[in-house]
Structures are given as structure tokens and as C-alpha cells.
Design brief:
Elements lengths: L7 E4 L7 E4 L1 H5 L1 H15 L6 E5 L2 H13 L2 E5 L9 E8 L2 E8 L8 E9 L3 H12 L3 E11 L4 H4 L5 E7 L2
Parallel strand pairs: 3-4, 3-7, 7-8, 8-9
Antiparallel strand pairs: 1-2, 5-6
Helix pairs in contact: 2-3
The structure holds adenosine monophosphate.
The site of adenosine monophosphate has 20 residues, from β2, β7 and α4.
């Protein structure tokens, strides 16, 4: 299936110079959405995955399905001030600006095998921040999983040394 045709490109969103990859047409097409999720599930179904950690908010759409299918726990990475219990925090740079994520301090146990899931790998700042949070709590990163990788932004280099599974790669 041609998944790339289900990604809508929006120029200059949310700011000038950004070619935004809108995944909502893919989500709306149930055959394409199922196909994309099945590719991910198939890739990891024989691996021991304890926890799926996903970035707010588009990462949740994919991450929760993977947690259900792979029989893993789900850990949300959220913007500051959203999680109710004690948290650990990590700042990072995005393709368009600074941001930070929080995770509950008891979300991951030492030695847990963790899949880090997001919709898009752009500059890799988000992914690296997620990795830092997981590793601060003693988790082991089994792999990163993305629907879309923006190869030209070289986010892969920020998380080199880790396994990376992405379904689509864009070169602009
Ligand atoms: P980064 O930290 O630069 O890898 O950015 C990744 C995060 O920002 C992901 O959670 C994406 O949802 C979002 N993002 C960054 N750049 C884009 C883009 N060009 N199109 C769509 N989403 C993007």
C-alpha cells in the first residue's frame, strides 16, 4: 500500500519554512491506518517489549494501539504540568522551538524493555529527550518507532546507536 500518498504536506505550518507532514488523512483511511499499524506490530511481535513510551499528543494515537497489541504497558510523555504525580523532566530543541517533556517517576522499572513511539522523526530532539527520560529511570530502549522519518533533517544521527524503525522516509 502507498502510505506516502496518505500524508498531506502543508507548507509553512506552524511557521514559515516548515513543510508539515499531516498524518490525519492516513488516520482517516481505516485501511491505511490498519496497514501501518500492522507493519509495526508484525515487526515487534516476537520481541519482549514491557512498555511503550509515547510523546504527546500524536504519538499517543499509535502508541496505545501498539501497547494493546504487543501486551505492553503504556507510558505517556507529557508537556509540563499535565501529569498529576511526581515527575522527571527533560528539555529539548525541536524543528521549530524549545520544549520539554515529563514522565511519572515510577513509570518505568530498571531493566524494562521500552519502545519509544512517535508520529514523525524530524530533528530527533523529541526522540532524544524521550530516550533520556527512559534511561534516567533505568529502562532499556528496544527501538524507536515512527510513521514518518524526515531523512533530510538527520534526526537519526541524534539517536544513533539505537534501533530505528520508520515506515516512510521523506527527503524534503
Ligand atoms: P523533532 O524533535 O524535531 O524530531 O520533532 C518531532 C516532533 O515534532 C514530533 O512529535 C512531530 O509530531 C513534530 N514535528 C516536527 N517536525 C514536523 C513536521 N515537519 N511535520 C510534522 N510533524 C513534525
Amino acid at each position: 500500500m502507498d502510505l506516502k500518498s496518505k500524508i498531506r504536506e502543508i507548507q509553512d505550518f506552524p511557521q514559515k519554512g516548515i513543510n508539515f507532514k499531516d498524518i490525519t488523512p492516513l488516520l482517516l483511511d481505516h485501511e491505511a491506518f490498519r496497514y501501518a499499524l500492522q507493519q509495526m506490530i508484525h515487526h515487534f511481535k516476537n520481541r519482549k517489549i514491557d512498555v511503550i513510551a509515547s510523546a504527546e499528543s500524536r504519538g499517543f494515537i499509535i502508541g496505545s494501539v501498539l501497547a494493546y497489541e504487543l501486551k505492553a504497558g503504556f507510558v505517556p510523555l507529557r508537556k509540563p504540568g499535565k501529569l498529576p504525580y511526581k515527575t522527571i523532566n527533560q528539555e529539548f530543541e525541536k524543528e521549530y522551538g524549545k520544549d520539554s517533556f515529563e514522565m511519572h517517576e515510577d513509570a518505568i522499572k530498571p531493566g524494562d524493555n521500552v519502545l519509544i513511539v512517535d508520529d514523525v522523526l524530524a530533528t530527533g530532539g523529541t526522540a532524544k529527550a524521550a530516550a533520556n527520560l527512559v534511561e534516567k529511570l533505568g529502562g532499556r530502549i528496544a527501538s524507536f518507532v515512527f510513521l514518518v522519518e524526515l531523512g533530510f533533517l538527520k534526526g537519526r544521527e541524534k539517536i544513533s546507536g539505537y534501533e530505528i524503525f520508520s515506515l516512510m522516509n521523506f527527503d524534503k
